[in-house]
Model the fold of this input.
Amino acid sequence: MNPIVHAELSWLGAQKLLDRRDRLLVTLAGVAPDLDGLSLVFGQEAYGRWHHVLTHGLVSAVVLSLVFASAAKRRLAVLGLSFLAFHLHLACDLAGSGPGWPISYFEPFSSEELAWSGQWNLASWQNSTIGLLSTLAVLGCAVPFSRTMMELVSLEVDAEVVKAVRARFGRKAQ
Done:
């Protein structure tokens, strides 16, 4: 699945958190498994060997969730939501990264891999639909929460996006 969609889904799951930094930390947790995608720097063979292995497992989920929680205001909430966002990323990868691409969830304790026989291709209608719906949901947050995911980039830009969405759907920005 696309890293932007991983980020959107994670940010959406963090909406009950009042602090922007806490929402950012949970969003980062939902994208963090793809750190092993940086193996592409060492070539296609390294990427094929190490992506879905180095940071797509339980050890990374625990360590990274603890790291993100340590930087949070609401540590326990961010710990739990980071762990969930990390695992949502893994579930999305199991479903939509392409047939025959397992996840090494138990590394380094076991070489057993997790896979699903119903995996769909990365460039599939399923991933496109999930991506479209997650983007619409992110924009939809402008109405009840007066924010969109743009808050992670710029509060000023986010305010303009919220204003535009609310103008289109009948509510003025607060």
Summary: The mean pLDDT is 93. Helices lie at 3-13, 20-31, 44-50, 58-70, 75-96, 125-140, 142-145, 155-168. DSSP finds eight helices and no strands in the chain. The longest helix spans residues 75-96.
